[in-house]
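Render N-alpha-acetyltransferase 20 in 3D.
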Amino acid sequence: MTTIRPFTCDDLFKINNVNLDPLTQTYDLPFYMQFLAHWPEYFQAAESPSGEIMGYIIGKAEGANENWHGHVTLLSVANDYRRLGLAATLMHNLEEISEKKRCFFVDLFTRVCNQVAVNMYETLGYSVYRRVLEYYSGRQVLVYSSGEVDEDAFEMRKALSRDKENKSVIPFPRPVRRDELN
């Protein structure tokens, strides 16, 4: 049986199996600690009966007025535990927290090339709000050379109950650069 619980500092030493996925963005310890200190309710772990971390989610609440929203900073499930519904459960919990904080929507960024993630988020009710050019930097490309390339992201959104007219998910008319994000 899987336990969804608050992430702890000790869990930082148990997430290597989850972070091995090449599409998972990994960060340094101060990054994780900042989220744990500022938005602990948004930082959750899925734990197996043996104590192994199966996956985790990191998020926060940000913005102002009608842009007040929950944000998924990172969601990852270890390869051995995929297709069990863990990602959907973690996302649902983050959405519930955002509802309680009276957010208008939840957003996230995913690599354009990560069609599995795009499909999963669409199944969960998210839609592409806009494309962000060169959002992810320095991904290794092995097709023609071993150089690095910046990769685009989709910003995906799901309206919450406070956004009664679904204004927050009306697609943006053009791609944007990172410095244009608000």
